[in-house]
Specification:
The protein starts with 9 loop residues before the first helix and ends in a 5-residue tail after the last helix. By secondary structure, it is α+β, with helices and mostly antiparallel strands. Strands 6, 7, 8, 9, 10, 11, 12 and 13 form an eight-stranded mixed sheet that branches. Strands 2-1-5-4-3 form a five-stranded mixed sheet. It is built from nine helices and 13 strands. It binds adenosine-5'-diphosphate (ADP) and manganese (II) ion (4 copies). The site of adenosine-5'-diphosphate has 16 residues, from strand 6, strand 8 and strand 10.
């Protein structure tokens, strides 16, 4: 913010943002790229009396050869609108449009994990699957150094930073606050936020969301975070182990329940699901994020990447049953394995597949 290489004129921008739009709106089409990032571009649509739903929005396309999503000689990737949100940056009537990427022959693009996830959610919808994801992330300066860390060296050891209050304990709270408000405005089901164990690391939670909505809302929340941080001149890192050594990594704890688990006697359904997860540990780890082996060491509140474990209130296990749920005998469980950079469609998809079976073509 005080970095002279980063100058924005947000105040000057305000008077332009207030100008009438002549019956038009701006739709920001957002998609997931080949590196787990988000990309977006804008187009003009007619303003309508009623809010746009995905089926009313035009398909679009982009140059996939510029994003590593298609070869140069057949570069068009189609954007299929799948969810719409109010745009907190431009305000009403402007919208954010989450889109799935399709190849020119209509098949899902290699990095489109939503397609498969949506099929699994639909096939097993009667279980009313709820998810709540805890997105951890680290704020970096433009030189890729965690914000507020000394130029040469390290901050004092972990301890005062988790849920910290006060100068020297937390940094960039403005970004966290702005992002929270953006999520609420956009209708993203953000459920809370807290400063994390490593300085410059934060978490927010999204959920409970049912079915495919989990991935949709988490991806839009990530877009909003990158976009807010851009205005403050900060970078968002979803690296699962941004700083080696005695510094906590970053995860995407995934809380899960079904209708049966949430009812009286639900614990037997929770235990049955955990047994199934145990049998497919390696398959889950394979889609739970890149570089996760640096984080899942069995230290720093993680279970080891090689062994599956579970326990009540155990933050060193793969799966934690919250104390309150164990006491009540029903509720949900927490899969602590996913890394901060994992794709929520892949996480929620494989949990459904493991618990209820694959879907045939
Ligand atoms: P932790 O104690 O692990 O830090 P958090 O409070 O950060 O837990 O996150 C808990 C998450 O669990 C929230 O996203 C919340 O929406 C979600 N959650 C709560 N109840 C359920 C449920 N029945 N099914 C699925 N997710 C749930
Ligand atoms: Mn062009
Ligand atoms: Mn949490
Ligand atoms: Mn956390
Ligand atoms: Mn957690």
């Amino acid at each position: 913010m005080s970095d002279p290489s980063h100058i924005t004129y947000t105040e000057n921008l305000q008077k332009f943002l207030r100008l009438p739009q002549g019956g038009k709106l701006i739709a920001e089409y957002i998609w997931i790229d080949s590196e787990g990032g988000v990309r977006s571009k804008s187009r003009t649509l007619d303003e309508k009396e009623t809010p746009y739903v995905p089926a009313e929005l035009p398909m679009w396309n982009f140059d996939g050869s510029s994003t590593g999503q298609a070869p140069g000689e057949n570069s068009d990737v189609y954007l299929q609108p799948v969810a719409v949100f109010p745009d907190p940056f431009r305000g009403a009537p402007n919208i954010l449009v989450l889109a799935e990427c399709l190849n020119s022959d209509g098949t899902p693009n290699k990095y489109n994990h939503r397609h498969e996830c949506a099929k699994l959610m639909e096939a097993h919808a009667e279980h009313k699957p709820w998810f709540g994801l805890e997105q951890e992330y680290t704020l970096l300066d433009l030189n890729d150094r965690p914000y507020g860390w000394p130029k040469n060296g390290y901050p004092a050891p972990q301890g005062p930073y988790y849920c910290g209050v006060g100068a020297g304990k937390v940094v960039m709270r403005d970004i966290v606050e702005a992002h929270y408000k953006c999520c609420l405005y956009a209708g993203v089901k953000i459920s809370g936020t807290n400063a994390e164990v490593m300085p410059a690391q934060w978490e927010y939670q999204v959920g409970p969301c049912e079915g495919i909505e989990m991935g949709d809302h988490l991806w839009i929340s990530r877009f909003l975070l990158h976009r807010v941080a851009e205005e403050f001149g900060a970078k968002v890192s979803f690296d699962p182990k941004p700083i080696p050594g005695d510094w906590n990594g970053a995860g995407l704890h995934s809380n899960f329940s079904t209708k049966e688990m949430r009812e009286e006697g639900g614990m037997k359904h929770i235990e049955a699901a955990i047994k199934k997860l145990e049998g497919r540990h390696a398959e889950h780890i394979a889609v739970y994020g890149e570089g996760n082996e640096k984080r899942l060491t069995g230290r720093h509140e993680t279970g080891s990447i090689d062994t599956f474990s579970y326990g009540v209130a155990n933050r060193g296990a793969s799966i934690r049953i919250p104390r309150e749920c164990a006491a009540k005998g029903y509720g949900y469980f927490e899969d602590r394995r996913p890394a901060s950079n994992a794709d929520p469609y892949q996480i929620t998809g494989i949990i459904m597949e493991t618990c209820f079976g694959a879907v045939s073509e």
